[in-house]
Design a protein that fits this description.
Layout (H helix, E strand, L loop, with lengths): L7 E6 L2 E4 L2 E4 L1 H5 L2 H8 L2 E6 L7 E5 L4 E6 L7 H27 L1
Antiparallel strand pairs: 1-2, 1-4, 2-3, 3-6, 4-5, 5-6
Length: about 110
């Protein structure tokens, strides 16, 4: 018996990381705004592997790391909700940066 890992392809889309007709997300994707970038610039493929008995998670293979991605809620997330979510996150980041700049100036 071999312990080899069979790599598959998943697609980063504006709705999440799509693999086997299920959407996933991970910290790295959120931190680097993959879904917003996919919405603006188009989808791209990434390498993943999965546990044989669990489709609730996938492992994303990057050059320096492996990231765990979790399946998204089965509730359909529409594009407007995704865009509003990322807009709110970006607004919060801008607010924190302005607040820090004001505190530093004082």
């Amino acid at each position: 018996m071999t312990n080899s890992v069979h790599l598959e392809w998943a697609l980063v889309t504006s709705r999440g990381i799509r693999y086997d007709n299920i959407f996933y997300s991970c910290r790295q994707a959120i931190k680097e705004q993959w879904f917003m970038k996919a919405d603006e610039k188009g989808c791209w493929a990434i390498r993943v592997f999965t546990p044989i008995t669990n489709n609730k998670i996938i492992f994303i293979v990057s050059p320096n790391n492996i990231h765990i991605a979790y399946s998204l809620n089965s509730r359909q997330i529409n594009e407007m909700e995704v865009q509003a979510y990322f807009k709110n996150i970006n607004d919060l980041k801008k607010f924190r940066a302005r607040k820090k700049a004001i505190i530093t100036a004082i």
